[in-house]
Amino acid sequence: MSNLELFSGTKATKPVNVSFRLPYYTQWGQSLLVCGSEPVLGSWNVKKGLLLRPVHQGDELIWYGSIAVRNEFSCEYNYYVVDDKKNVLRWEMGEKRKLFLPLGISGGDFVELHDLWQTGGDGIPFRSAFKDVIFRRSWSLEIERPLGVKNKLEKADDVLVHFKICCPNVEKETSVYVIGSVKKLGQWKVQDGLKLSYAGDATWQADVVLEKADFPIKYKYCKYNKAGHFSLETGSNRELTVDSSKVLTRCILLSDGMLRELPWRGAGVAIPMFSVRSEADLGVGEFLDLKLLVDWAVESGFHLVQLLPLNDTSVHGMWWDSYPYSSLSVFALHPLYLRVQALTENLPEDIKKEIQEAKKQLDRKDVDYDATMATKLSIAKKIFNREKDLILNSSRFQQYLSENEEWLKPYAAFCFLRDFFETSDHSQWGRFSNYTKGKLEKLTSKDSLHYDIISFHYYIQFHIHSQLSEAAEYARKKGVILKGDLPIGVSRNSVDTWVYPNLFRMNTSTGAPPDYFDKNGQNWGFPTYNWEEMSKDNYAWWRARLTQMGKYFTAYRIDHILGFFRIWELPDHALTGLIGKFRPSIPLSQEELESEGIWDFNRLSHPYIKQEFLQEKFGTSWTFIAANFLNEFQKGHYEFKEDCNTEKKIASKLESLAEKSMLLGGEDQIRQGLFDLLKNIVLIRDREDASKFYPRFNLEDTSSFYDLDDHSKNVLKRLYYDYYFHRQENLWRQNALKTLPVLLNSSDMLACGEDLGLIPACVHPVMQELGLVGLRIQRMPSEPDLEFGIPSQYSYMTVCAPSCHDCSTLRAWWEEDEERRQRYFKSVVGSDADPPSKCTPDIAYFVLRQHVEAPSMWAIFPLQDLLALKEEYMTRPATEETINDPTNPRHYWRYRVHVTMESLLKDKALKTTIKGLVQASGRSHPGLGETNVQENREKTSVISGKQQLSTSNRINGAPRKETSVL
């Protein structure tokens, strides 16, 4: 390769030869490329980057490439996987790499860069969950020397080796050393090894001048403290060689990735905020109750508390708003969780008395959403009226308003208009239906007549922010991660759809894919996202949303992560979730179908209704149904009338007929029958392009499909499986890689993805690549041939749990199905005996131990499942402990734990049992000292067997295949 910058006038300057070396396994047709900030590496244009060449060395595939540069050369660079046209297929995660040539390097010298591919998992220790909580230090590490090489070369056969390693978790008065087979590396004696200097950002470095005769060298990194104790990194020795057949390499710059330690593993508890019960709460869990929950978590050996979404959901003004995944605002917190007693230090006696009376009335088995909201807002309003001037003029409030006004003012204005017009459907707000900044300024002006109402919403958000912030900081100091939840959708009647209507497709609806819960799916009713529009400002709405969450949480769960690959999209007139399509997806074209001999598109895409179907579904009432809902367009064949050709129209007409007492049967039964007829199609015609079609989910189950000729059946079956399982994979992968990195980079929280259901093949590789932690529920295994998951075989980058909020608790699941219980007892417990009919504490202990001993990074248990360890807490019927019934779109989210946190804190026996499980599994727990760390590691190696090492797939730190490593 020529480089004109190497020439000055007519006399050539000898270049420095810089070679890149990276172990990496690719698929057929893929190549590795290095691209950087300088022209010789493409100036960040990947198409002009340097293609590397692969060489097999033993079990490794090494990629090489070289450039010729000046001896003062420096640049930034990164590696990319590309296809044969240099289209980017994936790129490494993390910060841009920096290259500085050492001093003393002269023209003609050879410099080698030995790099390792940077995965998303490599960045996990730098997420706030670890950096600011788990590895939080009361002392600071001072930078001893900045990045770069310090030594110089003197002799002709000297080789300068620069060691660089990342080690984010270093105890006080502990140093990092490299020891190895040569004298200058201590000949394996730690005290004589090469001490590394701290360079900032958890990076340690040192360089040493070796002689050519010293190679090959074997080496390892280790930690060494003042007391003389050391811990050597795990795995096989690292090895460094030089090729003696070539010109002598003068400098080797080693980027050795992470110091290899046994993977950190922790445990946590999951409970919705509204379910927590305390002696101080007012009918529902409150943010300040988190301090009690954190204390209990610490004493039970837990490093994490997981919550459901905490955003305001006050859309309908009734108990429907108990659904925490339908946000009125993705920025505002829910007033439900406010502690009114903490609004002021000067509570008057009459309000104190009112609070005490309310406590008695609201201290019920379940949350009374309506009464609790009304009571809290009423009391808060009375306190506000007394202290509004003091609070609103305070410097703390003014700072809060200044930092949050971009979302806070629209939110307060929305709440005012919602109450004024008595609906959150902003299309009904007259001239305020269309949001403008000018209208907002008038609504929120201090001179307006309704400013008190507007500022009351400011006041509530200010206080609830302060209370959650207090609890969050308390958790961080106690070494406990607060894990939030990022809903996939927002309510179509929300602040966000009012202010940013162009970001949403309001004529469509988000649903759960039909496989997710049942054969009909579930219509969540959220508008789908307009990703194209969102991309124009680099997803600013999403970035702001994650930044807001990062104020309180150090980890979060991405609800239905598949939605970032593709979403199940329904027409707005749908009430159920079956007749939908994936967005984005590649449809079947009319041309494609015609080439396969498929021609009758109206027959396939319109409801196929024969007289015999009507008689079968409705019996003697079929003539009434036909007369009111259908037209006979051909002898014995029917179609829906215009006023009832959608699910919403059918529901509306049925309601009208029921009011007139004209229905001859049950309304629900007739509705279901008509819905079934409406869905009796094989293809769904695209509403935007009539020449494109989508195969209906489970089309083989329809009588429309059954009546087709064999040729059409075979063609449509083949195209169906191609659409759902093959042709979309690359499109969905590309879609996720546009959006998910933006989310992950907009905050430093640890991200976990809820990846249950029918998972496309592209999902797990992308999650692995980006360092996203997945979810494993034993009763919902991702392996199609298993009825029950095997926790001991879970991968490290997962959260494992026996149950979650979207399914029955461990106790309820155990009691639901006798035959399933027997299969579990035989295949998982390994016993042919009859299992107990109830989930005894012994059964609960067995299941929890399975999970806590799993290789998963996290084992997170619903509080209900932990209470099953003690009979005292099993008096309540198990079915009453369920948080959500996913098959019921009008489920009331109201479960409350039947014991207070104060009582649980006093229960030493339960805490001891839980902490014993955590300790015996080798998982980390708050207050774990250095001595216990080593004991835990030894236990881990016994418990986890072959799964113990996150680095087990590496040779010299290089991944044999794409794996995320912590």
From TrEMBL:
It catalyses: Transfers a segment of a (1->4)-alpha-D-glucan to a new position in an acceptor, which may be glucose or a (1->4)-alpha-D-glucan. It is found in: Cytoplasm. It comes from the Eukaryota. Coiled coil: none annotated. Residues 10-119, 153-266 form the CBM20 domain. Residues 941-955 have a biased composition (Polar residues). Residues 920-966 are annotated as: Disordered. Keywords: Carbohydrate metabolism, Cytoplasm, Glycosyltransferase, Transferase. The keyword Transferase applies. Transmembrane segments: none annotated. Its EC number is 2.4.1.25. Pfam families: CBM_20, Glyco_hydro_77. The keyword Acetylation does not apply. It is an enzyme of class 2 (transferase). Its main location: cytoplasm. GO terms for biological process: carbohydrate metabolic process. SUPFAM superfamilies: (Trans)glycosidases, Starch-binding domain-like. GO terms for molecular function: 4-alpha-glucanotransferase activity; starch binding. GO terms for cellular component: cytoplasm. Belongs to the disproportionating enzyme family. PANTHER family: 4-ALPHA-GLUCANOTRANSFERASE, PTHR32518. This is 4-alpha-glucanotransferase. It comes from Erythroxylum novogranatense. The lineage of its organism: Eukaryota, Viridiplantae, Streptophyta, Embryophyta, Tracheophyta.
